[in-house]
Amino acid sequence: MSFNEELLDDSQPILYSYWRSSCSWRVRICLNLKEVPYDIKPISLIKSGGEQHCNEYREVNPMEQVPALQIDGHTLVESVAIMQYLEETRPQRPLLPQDFYKRAKVREICEIIASGIQPLQNLIVLIHVGEEKKKEWAQHWITRGFRAVEKLLSTSAGKYCVGDEITLADCCLVPQVFNARRFHVDLRPYPIILRIDRELESHPAFRAAHPSAQPDSPPEITK
Q1: How far is CA 182 from CA 2, 73, 149, 173, 177, in A?
Q2: Which tens digit of pLDDT belongs to each residue from 102-146?
Q3: Alpha-carbon Rg for the chain in angstroms
Q4: pLDDT for 15-70, tens place per residue?
Q5: How many angstroms separate the CA atoms of 3 and 5, rounded?
Q6: Where does this protein reside within or beyond the cell (predicted)?
Q7: Residue 189, CB half-sphere, CA atoms under 13 Å: how many?
Q8: Within a 10 A sphere around the Cβ of 104, how many other Cβ atoms?
Q9: What stretches of the chain adopt beta strand conformation (E)?
């Protein structure tokens, strides 16, 4: 069955995902928190030069990236846009506060991670930077971003990123902490980030979204 044929099936949402993609991961968390059942269509970012570059997948996501979500008869790309759509169409389990200022704080954290950190250490950028320099490059941008996130959290955090309820900011934070560890970033200067990550690591929605729980996760990967 081709990608396009799958897109015609409007029975259950389909998430085009890669097990270690933090963008896919944050959408998986959001879907899980909102208790939206979905199927995963794995897209390998490394097999055969990257399945995201094939002509069929380009019809799904012209940016040749993951994630993409087929839902409600539509195909959506870009993780933050997908999460906002889920929030607006499935508000029963809200991931944005009612208070407008707190909503802005959630969006600040999401933007710093999704625009100011993650794109600078994703696969396509690291390939361009080169094997020799990619670790130093990733560490620089993650550290720079986490300094800002930690500062924001010092005034916004309760139990979680903004107050005592899980929000979209938490969906973005946890995968980025995983990336930081992957690139051996020293996380000791960010105690609030670490505390929130520990708080969420055992939450069922977060555990089910973890890379080790994905159908395309390599067998040697364990949490």
Answers
A1: 34, 36, 19, 14, 9
A2: 999 999 999 999 999 998 877 778 888 888 888 999 999 999 999
A3: 17
A4: 999 999 999 999 999 999 999 999 999 998 888 788 898 989 999 999 999 999 99
A5: 5
A6: Cytoplasm
A7: 13
A8: 13
A9: 14-17, 39-42, 68-71, 74-77
